[in-house]
Design goal:
With 397 residues, the protein is an alpha/beta fold. The chain is 29% helix and 15% strand. It is built from 10 helices and 13 strands. It has helices spanning 16-20, 48-54, 83-96, 111-123, 223-227, 242-256, 261-276, 290-312, 351-356, 383-394, and strands spanning 105-109, 132-136, 151-156, 168-173, 194-199, 218-222, 235-239, 315-316, 322-325, 330-333, 338-343, 363-364, 374-378. The two termini are 34 Å apart. The relative contact order is 0.18. The structure holds 2-acetamido-2-deoxy-beta-D-glucopyranose. The site of 2-acetamido-2-deoxy-beta-D-glucopyranose (NAG) has 4 residues, from loops.
């Protein structure tokens, strides 16, 4: 979630991609092994095809007079939250069964990036004069954007087990970024030693079996990973404690005075389309189902990646996780949004550098507190980009 240069495999001949994607810049353009540098935030552009197909049904129209006030729900705890968005967020959680939404406060933010900061602000003790440590077990997602005097990045949570260190805030990312592992808090199990923020942005049925509704103190979600709308910059937190929720709202007030109502309305519309397709109603039966679409695509991609990896004999992937999904009512494999690829070639200590030599720009494992022989691969890019990745990977011997 925090800004980082992820990974991009960009076709040498980018054609129409260049015009629609200014994030890509090609440094040179000729031979098959030309290295093309791309900066990407793990953009979930795979979903574009789905929403193009959905067409008008998913369009949000906003009249000029609408949503002009700072306030949406002046009497509510989260006073800038649009009631329609609140309804749709609670509805999609009830539909999928991935989190307890009833009995929780809903705090909306400009992406989970802001909610992360808000949650850390809310949990950090204000009485001490040194910043509270923020930890996560390796491999963990980039945490170099902790912009506050209240907290500082303290590293691998496993190092804080037992008697080391004092109070810490633990980030529990499950399924984990970068390796897709299902995680539980390491520190909060030691009594009183840690407060946890659960980042559940990938806990949706296209990525992992939904085993039960999560019910942690603070749970973060985002449109970006649910439906692909990263550009809408809309995330939410389900928060058990009202004082923590109020502090988070105060943080959002202090940094952006609420969250764009235009974005909230659009998100409400998108979530409504997602839920409608799974509920009996006046639909014509041909409505597209987002989770089915995404599972099909990611399943195909994982199979292609496994085949490419098997063909080269140079790489390995984490073992596939399977489980019973209470949403699809089937035993299914997890299809993480990122692949955590390990290089096994003799003499290769730095997998990212090795791949760069083959025209693949990857984010190296040491940036996640892990092994330099690993890289993180974005599985959610557009088809054209993903296909070039598979081609280039397959040609490595
Ligand atoms: C599974 O889903 C059903 C509704 O379809 C629900 O009643 C039940 O509590 C769920 N079980 C778990 C473990 O989430």
């Amino acid at each position: 979630m925090l800004g980082c240069l992820v990974l991009g495999w960009v076709p040498v001949s980018m054609g129409s991609l260049t015009s629609s994607s200014s994030a890509f810049s090609s440094s040179s353009t000729s031979s098959a092994t030309t290295r093309v540098s791309a900066s990407s935030f793990g953009d979930p552009t795979m979903y574009e095809a789905f929403w193009r197909e959905a067409g008008e049904r998913a369009a949000a129209v906003i009249p000029g007079w609408w949503g002009m006030s700072y306030f949406s729900n002046a009497g509510g705890l989260c006073w800038y939250l649009e009631p329609e968005l609140e309804r749709e967020v609670r509805r999609v959680h009830r539909l999928v069964g991935n989190a307890m939404a009833d009995g929780y406060h809903l705090v909306v933010g400009t992406g989970t990036t802001q909610l992360f900061q808000a949650a850390m602000y809310a949990l950090a003790p204000t009485s001490t004069d040194r910043p509270v440590g923020v930890v996560s077990p390796a491999p963990y997602y980039s945490t170099d954007l902790l912009l506050s005097g209240y907290y500082r990045w303290a590293g691998d949570a496993n190092a804080f087990h037992g008697d080391h260190g004092g109070e810490n805030i633990e980030l529990v990312v499950s399924p984990n970024n970068p390796d897709g592992a299902i995680r539980e808090a390491v520190l909060s199990s030691d009594s009183g030693k840690g407060k946890a923020i659960h980042d559940l942005v990938y806990y949706w049925p296209q990525y992992t079996p939904i085993t039960s509704p999560a019910a942690h103190d603070i749970m973060l979600f985002t449109m970006s990973k649910l439906s692909g709308h990263g550009g809408t910059r809309l995330g939410w937190a389900l928060v058990k404690d009202s004082d923590v929720a109020k502090k988070m709202v105060y943080f959002v007030y202090g940094s952006t005075i609420g969250v764009s109502k235009d974005s909230q309305l659009r998100a409400a519309k998108i979530l409504g389309v997602v839920s409608d397709a799974y509920e009996p109603g006046p639909g014509d039966g041909t409505q597209l189902r987002l989770f089915d679409f995404a599972r099909r695509r990611t399943g195909e991609r994982w199979r292609a990646l496994h085949a490419a990896v098997a063909a080269t004999g140079t790489f390995s992937l984490p073992d596939e996780i399977t489980g019973y999904c209470n949403f699809t009512k089937q035993t299914v494999a997890a299809y993480p949004a990122f692949a955590w690829l390990r290089c096994y070639k003799d003499g290769v200590e730095d997998c990212a550098e090795f791949l760069r030599g083959h025209g693949i720009v990857a984010r190296g494992g040491e940036q996640f507190g892990g092994d330099a022989r690993c890289v993180r691969v974005n599985m959610m890019d557009r088809d054209a980009v993903f296909n070039v990745l598979i081609q280039r990977l397959s040609s490595i011997t």
